[in-house]
Amino acid sequence: MKTTPQVNLLACLLLLPLFCVVLPVNGYDKEMTVYVDARKTECLYHSVKQGETIDFEYQVIDGGHGDLDISFTLLDPIGLVIVSDLKKPDNMHRHDVEKEGDYRFCFDNSFSMYNRKTVFFELIVEREGDQHHGDTQWNEDLADLTPDEYYDMKVQDIMDFIGRIRLQLNKARQLQDMLRSHEARDRNLAETNFQKVNHWSMLQISAMIGVGLIQVFMLRSIFETHGRMHHLWRKLGI
């Protein structure tokens, strides 16, 4: 069944608060958690076109029994270093792409001898002006409308309003992602401290029980006249 552009536009306007603002854009948005073993370097590649913008944010959420830090390097398609971080817990970078090709994002844990690092990162690649994506399609649909219909619907105002909503939703989602990564890091740190406290508590309890048993044995041996330890105490003058 075929529908006219006017019907499609009206349907989109009616359902816009639920669906249209969450449609994918002509960019790239990826969230991932990676594990970087001790003495290892993990690299990820992504193809970026000239004129696009790279937004990269990372955070170490688990450092094993070591520090929450990692070294990060961003390299362009010919291998030149764009960004280099040395042993940082988190950071955020933005780069305007001038060379088209495969960009390399590397996490370096070679300085760690035994501890594996867990790193959460988010990569956003978009072209300037993507916040107004869909304007061309909307203009094509509006071409079949009469001036009165165009005026009554005030589509341009709606489009501007939707664009602002989309930007705010993207910022809110990014903030929620960062809060979730902070929560994961704090939870891992709390669990690690909990295990350390339990281990030390068990060690101290075992030491206390052992010392108590030794004291009981020593006291009993002092008052036993026919025991083996009694002769030793006599030699020592006790």
TrEMBL record:
Main localization (coarse): membrane
Keyword Transmembrane annotated: yes
Any idea what this protein is called?
Answer: Transmembrane emp24 domain-containing protein 5 isoform X1
Sorted keywords for this record are: Developmental protein, Membrane, Signal, Transmembrane, Transmembrane helix
Mind telling me which InterPro entries this protein's record contains?
A: Emp24-like, GOLD_dom, GOLD_dom_sf
- Give the source's domain of life in one word: Eukaryota
This protein's membrane topology, according to the annotation, is: Single-pass membrane protein; Single-pass type I membrane protein
Q: Which organism is it from?
A: Drosophila pseudoobscura pseudoobscura (Fruit fly)
GO CC terms, sorted: endomembrane system; membrane
Which Pfam families does this chain map to? Answer: EMP24_GP25L (PF01105)
Q: Where in the cell is it found?
A: Endomembrane system; Membrane
Q: What is the lineage of its organism?
A: Eukaryota, Metazoa, Ecdysozoa, Arthropoda, Hexapoda
| GN (gene name) | opm
